[in-house]
Amino acid sequence: MRLLDQDALERSSVAANCAMNRERRLPGYNRELGLNVIEFLSSRAASGTPVRWLDLCCGTANALFETAASFPSEIEITGVDLVDFFAGPPRPPRVRLLTASVATWEPEGTFDLITSVHGLHYVGDKLGVIANAARWLAPDGLFVANFDARSIRREDGSPAGPPLVRTLRAEGLSYDSRNKRISCRGWREIRMPYTFVGSDDQAGPNYTGQPAVNSHYARAVDSSGR
User: Fold this and answer.
1) Methyltransferase as a keyword (predicted)?
2) Distances (CA, A) of 170 to 45, 190, 192
């Protein structure tokens, strides 16, 4: 099996998939995330400081533009995507769009809401991005993303399976296996016993029906050899 490092993966046509989330609008975000984005952000607006939303793998950012146009309070919205496929101007002044790898990009400050709608399917170090998102949260912020635990593989290609899910939950993450969503409430430093070793962009379609990327990890062992 040929595994790709991060740079090679980002040159892959699978990682730059334009069929997933590229044109998705706000109602689609609400459905996929199991969250009314406007209602959640509005509940955060009472603090008197601008509400901050970060969307990873934002596609055209149509949902971000829609939110900025209708949100009644101060808001700062950041969208990050590997491909510069953002919808054309005029762009609302409250939306900042960046072309960058979500695997290496670092923000300034924390966020009230961090989302990724079907973006993690095309990321190499998925667990690393999840851990980063958790530490980018405000103390009472929310991270929620589509995530298929079956895309996490051991070095030999076998599924990481239930031990992975137990680790995620032990670190304070919630995983909904039915709806394929992972979430975290409030800032936390996540430490998982997995080291990213590469990605397989030939894994084939996942539950969405679109070609996706499997992420392979070496698992650390403790002193007992487990």
Assistant:
1) yes
2) 31, 10, 10
